[in-house]
């Protein structure tokens, strides 16, 4: 039935459909008017239109302005496209910065090992690693939440993501090397090392 179809829409589906409505009409709407049209033409439950609209406004995909005593909403295709492109560029930039940080840390570990680094340097590098790993996870989440990008864009971001994971795995390799070096140099056991440097017991490759 039509009702069950309406109930079956995910929040993202509702967002896409409401944005589609704005782009098809290319007009200015008040909330009441939008609720009627969206439920009738796009199958979005009337009561949920406001919440969906608010999320689009929060993401700058829909514009809003109070004119006199009324609040109007609108969105034209070029605006949405620009916003998405800006977001995409922002994500790409962040990925490049992370790649740069990982390379610098990799290089630093290599140099330190050549000079027989001490436990203090190892601790600092391990802290750097946990920060980088957290940042990578955060940007992976951001990338996957932008499912409205085209397949080509998602593919490109996934390639970047794979490259970052590869870098992180190289880094994990280095951590294992540092651990075994510390064990042989200072005769410390693994559990103690893990505790001292806050290395998770189950640390492994991505």
From TrEMBL:
Member of which family?
Answer: Belongs to the MND1 family.
UniProt keyword terms in alphabetical order: Coiled coil, Nucleus
Full protein name: Meiotic nuclear division protein 1 homolog
Q: Where in the cell is it found?
A: Nucleus
> Mind telling me which GO cellular component terms the entry cites?
nucleus
Q: Which residues form a coiled coil?
A: 81-174
- Keyword set includes Coiled coil: yes
For this UniProt entry, what is the primary localization, expressed as one broad class? nucleus
Which ranges carry the Mnd1 HTH domain?
18-77
From the Swiss-Prot or TrEMBL record, what is one GO molecular function term?
double-stranded DNA binding
InterPro entries in UniProt = LZ3wCH, Mnd1, Mnd1_HTH
Q: Any idea where the Leucine zipper with capping helix domain is?
A: 154-205
GO:BP terms for this protein? reciprocal meiotic recombination
Tell me which Pfam families the record gives: LZ3wCH (PF18517), Mnd1 (PF03962)
Q: Quick check: keyword Nucleus in the entry?
A: yes
């Amino acid at each position: 039935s039509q009702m069950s179809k309406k109930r079956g829409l995910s929040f993202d589906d509702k967002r896409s459909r409401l944005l589609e409505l704005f782009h098809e009409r290319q007009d200015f709407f008040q909330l009441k008017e939008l609720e009627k049209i969206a439920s009738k033409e796009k199958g979005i439950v009337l009561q949920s239109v406001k919440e969906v609209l608010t999320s689009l406004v929060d993401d700058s995909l829909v514009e809003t302005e109070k004119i006199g005593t009324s609040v109007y909403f609108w969105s034209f295709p070029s605006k949405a496209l620009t916003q998405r492109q800006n977001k995409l560029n922002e994500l790409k930039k962040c990925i490049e910065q992370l790649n740069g940080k990982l390379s610098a840390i990799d290089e630093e570990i290599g140099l330190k090992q050549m000079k027989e680094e001490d436990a203090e340097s190892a601790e600092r590098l391990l802290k750097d690693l946990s920060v980088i790993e957290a940042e990578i996870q955060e940007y992976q989440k951001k990338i996957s939440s932008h499912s409205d990008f085209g397949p080509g864009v998602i593919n490109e971001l996934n390639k970047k993501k794979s490259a970052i994971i590869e870098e992180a795995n190289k880094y994990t390799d280095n951590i294992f090397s540092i651990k075994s070096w510390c064990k042989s140099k200072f005769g410390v056991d693994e559990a103690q090392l893990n505790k001292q440097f806050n290395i998770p017991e189950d640390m492994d490759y991505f």
